[in-house]
Amino acid sequence: MTMKLENHGRFARTVRRWILPTVLLSLSQAGCAQRHVGPGLIGNQRLGSITIAVAPAINESGSTDFDPEHFADEMANELGYVDGINVVPVSRVLDVMREHGWDQVESAAHALQIADLLGADAMLVFAVTTYNAYDPPKIGVAAQLFGHRPDGGSRVDPVKLSQSATATETPRRVEDGVLAQASRVFDASHEDLIRDLKGYAAERNAGDNPYGYRWYVISQRRFMQYCCNATIRLLLAGGTDGAVTAKAQGNEPRGKPEQKALAAR
Is residue 201 one of the residues assigned to a domain? Predict the structure, then answer.
């Protein structure tokens, strides 16, 4: 009987010392995607500490070569590299939207409503305006980050944003409910974009891959990741970034029809 009590006491101490703290830590992190550490972290003086949910991408490109939900996953993953930002898993966002019968975000007020349901401070809504999966690839992204403001009824129109703003233009007026916005077409035929992409690839240890930085050009998924990262940097910089100067107008891809589409991974 004494031996059984001693064993029970030993087990209880083990639970308190090792198992319970691990369970509590897991529960505390369950609501948000894991934040990244190490190289590639992005500074964040504009937004501070904030929890963001990412809506599925709005496909305005006319292309069927990508999955809007997968694009949102990549955007959420890149947000995890920003200092001070916690990210709600896209799967949770999709669950809430499906429960209410919503296919996409319809307005700033709607974005804030979904953010509230998820316990988030803000919601990132973005449209894919151009999508070319041939080498050199070309992807256009127009994004708006909606946060809590007294009047949040402005219509979500990331496409209109992309048409009205040039690559180096900072919007003069921020609509109610919009914490940040950015629009850019990322064209891998531009040397200035490739310079920026090389820096991004180096941070992600692309040198360990036989293709080097080209891995982020020939892989559809990797180039998508870069575009998400660059869009986030634009949002944090107020819509401009001297390191990424690909223009949205008048740049047709140089790829020929017979070129092979980029690998999915």
Answer: yes
Tokens 């006491």 belong to 9
What does each C-alpha distance from 13 to 22, 23, 27, 241, 260 come to in angstroms? Answer: 14, 15, 21, 54, 61
246 located within any domain: no
**Cβ-count burial 164-187 (b if 16+ within 10 Å, e if not):** ebebeeebeeebebbbbbbbbbbb
* Residue-wise pLDDT tens digits, 63-72: 999 999 999 9
Reduced to 3 states (helix: H, G, I; strand: E, B; else coil), residue 227 is helix
Tell me the per-residue pLDDT of 166-177, one tens digit each, with 9 for 90 and over: 443 333 333 448
CATH of the domain at 208: 3.40.50.10610
Residue 218 located in a structural domain? yes
The sign of the dihedral angle between the CA atoms of 160, 165, 167, 172 is negative
Looking at beta carbons, which pairs linking 92-96 to residues 24 or more positions away fall under 8 Å?
92/31, 92/53, 92/118, 93/53, 93/54, 93/55, 93/56, 93/118, 94/56, 94/69
Number of folded domains that form the chain: 1
Token digits for 113? Answer: 């409503």
User: With contact defined as beta carbons under 8 Å apart, do 241 and 235 qualify?
Assistant: no
Per-residue model confidence (pLDDT) at position 174: 39
Tokens 């897991």 -> residue: 26
For residue 71, which of 133, 136, 148, 164 has the smallest C-alpha distance? Answer: 133
Which pLDDT does position 32 carry in this prediction? 60
Query: Residue 64 corresponds to which tokens in the numbers above?
Result: 């069927």
Token pair recorded at residue 152: 């949040």
